[in-house]
Design brief:
The protein has 116 residues and is mainly α. 71% of the residues lie in helices and 0% in strands. The chain is rod-shaped and about 90 Å long.
Length: 116
C-alpha cells in the first residue's frame, strides 16, 4: 500500500495543532483554578470564629466587627466617611443600603455579605 507523504504530513500538523490547543487549555484551566482559589480565600472573612458566632447569635455585625478591630465609632467613621451618629444608629438596628454596606465592609476589611 503506497504511503501518501502529503497526507501523513497534514495529519502530523493537525496533531501538533491539537496538542498546542490542549496545552493552552490546560494552562488556562490552571489560571482559572488559581483565580477561583483566590476568590474563595477573599470570601472567607479574616474574623475569628467567636466573632462570627456572636453575629449568628444576633449581635449587630457592625458593632461586633468594629469591636473586634478595636475601633471606636469615630475611628470607623473616619475610615468609611459615614458619620459616627449614623454608625451608632445602624448598630442599634437602623436599616442601611448596599452602598453604605460596601463602605463599612471596606473599612472593617470584611466581605459585604457579612454585614447584610
Amino acid at each position: 500500500m503506497p504511503i501518501d507523504d502529503q497526507f501523513v504530513y497534514s495529519l502530523e500538523l493537525k496533531i501538533l495543532d491539537l496538542e498546542k490547543l490542549v496545552n493552552d487549555l490546560e494552562k488556562r484551566i490552571g489560571e482559572l483554578e488559581t483565580q477561583q482559589a483566590s476568590a474563595a480565600q477573599l470570601a472567607q472573612p479574616d474574623v475569628p470564629e467567636d466573632v462570627l458566632k456572636q453575629i449568628e447569635a444576633g449581635e449587630n455585625p457592625i458593632r461586633a466587627l468594629r469591636q473586634y478591630r478595636l475601633m471606636t465609632q469615630r475611628e470607623l467613621s473616619n475610615r468609611c466617611g459615614i458619620r459616627a451618629n449614623h454608625i451608632s444608629a445602624m448598630e442599634r438596628g437602623m436599616p442601611f443600603g448596599l452602598k453604605t454596606a460596601k463602605r463599612l465592609a471596606e473599612a472593617l476589611e470584611v466581605p459585604v455579605g457579612l454585614l447584610t
